[in-house]
Amino acid sequence: MYARGQGVPQDYNTAVKWYRLAAGQGNASAQSNLGTMYGLGTGVIQDNIYAHMWFNIAASSGNAKNASKNRDIIAKQMTPADISAAQTLARECVAKNYKGC
């Protein structure tokens, strides 16, 4: 709602806050939305590593539409070292049950 300004004033920072809360509960759509926010730099500082991480987490659940496709698009803009770092962050995030990601 906050990301699109539906029923509330558009506020990307607040959208990121709610996406984080839902992503932390394993919601694949919220995880994918966080990937989008990081990829575009809306509500957060643009960061392809975190975008890739969130898209990868969402894609691994199998329940997020376009997460794999978006991860692959972001990966084309990254170095192999960046992709490796994103994959490591994704594994650590899942191991921590999404806490502090």
Give the SSE layout:
Layout: H1 12-23, H2 28-40, H3 48-61, H4 67-75, H5 80-95
Helix pairs in contact: 1-2, 2-3, 2-4, 3-4, 3-5
Uncertain regions: pLDDT < 50 for 5+ in a row? Answer: none
Cα(first) to Cα(last) distance is 22 Å
The H/E string reads HHHHH
Q: What's the helix count?
A: 5
What percent of residues are in strands? under 5%
Describe the biggest sheet?
A: none
The overall average pLDDT, rounded, is 94
Structural class, by secondary structure, is: mainly alpha
Q: Helix coverage percent of residues?
A: 55-70%
**Tally of distinct domains:** 1
Radius of gyration: 13 Å
Extended strand count: 0
Overall geometric form: globular
Describe the overall structure.
- This protein is 63% helix and 0% strand.
- With 101 residues, it is mainly alpha-helical.
- The chain has one domain.
